[in-house]
Design brief:
Blueprint: E1 2-4, E2 7-13, H1 18-30, E3 55-56, H2 60-78, E4 83-93, E5 114-119, E6 129-135, E7 138-144, E8 150-155, E9 159-161, E10 171-180, H3 182-190, H4 198-202
Antiparallel strand pairs: 1-2, 2-8, 3-4, 4-10, 5-8, 5-10, 6-7, 6-9
Length: about 200
């Protein structure tokens, strides 16, 4: 666990073929094919200044590989049936580009969930990811450098952005969103001592 002014994010190594995933994300952008879980428009149909411009839908096989790996991870942390994976997409940032400040919160869900970012490669001077927290009215930026094969797990309410990619290559990652289930809500309601790991990521309500 890594502390961010009262909230935490965690780092996890995924046991999957990172080089294969990297190539599949590239291919899914430039050689798209039908998939069953599209949540993002094609980048050519999106304004370059929109955050969706960097996003790409994944091939079914890539999606299922990440869904299985992340489901195993969150089950190991929270238990069976506590969280549900709802979105996974690729993220490609061209050289000299960056993402704007944003969060992944699901406005239709009444309780904060989790988001994650996975890195099938790491590049020098690629910008990493920067988390933003606020204490006493002051913003604090915490930069985190990506590590190949690593997944970062954090609250979906946490603001973040990617600084300029100065690596000279495309910077590629995969992101996902997770919502809490009614089963976990029931557990949290009874958790008067705040022992559930959920509180580390989203704070005490």
């Amino acid at each position: 666990m890594n502390l961010l002014n009262g909230l935490f994010f965690s780092r996890h190594k995924l046991d999957i073929d990172h080089d294969k995933i990297l190539q599949e994300v590239k291919d899914s952008r430039y050689i798209p094919k039908e998939s069953t879980h599209n949540s993002r428009p094609h980048y050519k149909d999106t304004h370059p200044h929109h955050v969706f411009y960097e996003d790409t839908n994944l091939y079914d096989e890539t999606y299922l590989t990440l869904k299985k790996a992340v489901t195993n991870l969150i089950t190991g942390i929270f238990g069976e049936g506590m969280l549900e994976q709802i979105e996974i997409w690729g993220h490609i940032i061209p050289s000299m580009d960056q993402t704007t400040v944003h969060a992944h919160r699901d406005v239709l869900n009444d309780a904060p969930g989790l988001s994650w970012a996975y890195y099938p490669h790491s590049l020098d001077n690629s910008g990493g990811i920067t988390f933003i927290t606020n204490v006493n009215g002051f913003d604090h930026n915490t930069p985190v450098e990506p590590v190949k094969g690593e997944l970062l797990l954090f609250s979906n309410t946490l603001l973040h952005f990617t600084p300029r990619n100065d690596s000279g290559e495309e910077r590629i990652s995969i992101s996902g969103n997770i919502k809490i289930t009614d089963k976990l809500k029931d557990e949290l309601y009874k958790d008067m001592d705040y022992k559930n790991p959920y509180w580390f990521y989203n704070g005490r309500c």
